[in-house]
Amino acid sequence: MIHFKKDAVLKLFLKVILFIVFILFTACSNYYSDQHIEIKEDGLIYKVGRDDPFTGRIIDTVENKIVEYDVIDGVKNGEFRISSIDGVVSIMGNVEDNMNIGEWNYFYPNGQLESKGNFNHDLPEGRWIWFHPNGNVKETGTFLEGLKVGRWYQYNSDGNLVLIIYYDFGEIIDEVHIDIIRST
User: Fold this and answer.
1) 11 — pLDDT class (breaks 50, 70, 90)
2) Alpha carbon distance 84, 68 (integer Å)
């Protein structure tokens, strides 16, 4: 019985130490929230009261979400992330010169992947895929310069193909509805 109490006290002590380290780390780092930064007429991000563009990581809360991103010389560059207050990520990707680039991932509130795809100069590019909450594929297709092109496939939550849509630079050319035959 004494051994159990010793373990519980040790765990509590470690949690308190980790909490203190977290508070010290965030207090001493180069993070600023909305009340410390401003976007001026030139479109760059500045620390309030300073004339030189801000460089550092911004962490802020917007509508009960935590928004984090890196800024270099007043411009968003690097990792961008939005998460819930309890740490569940909802959006994650990279920004270069204030534009979305590379792979971006979007998540359901439970943290499960909802969709993923790439951006090129702030426009969706290449193959994208969406998932149903149960993890099955919901839709797949390709973007070219931000427009849907080629065949897009839609699936029901059971994973069965239900629709094929043909796009030509964002315009629907044709649709093929797939009838699902169920055996009983």
Assistant:
1) low
2) 11
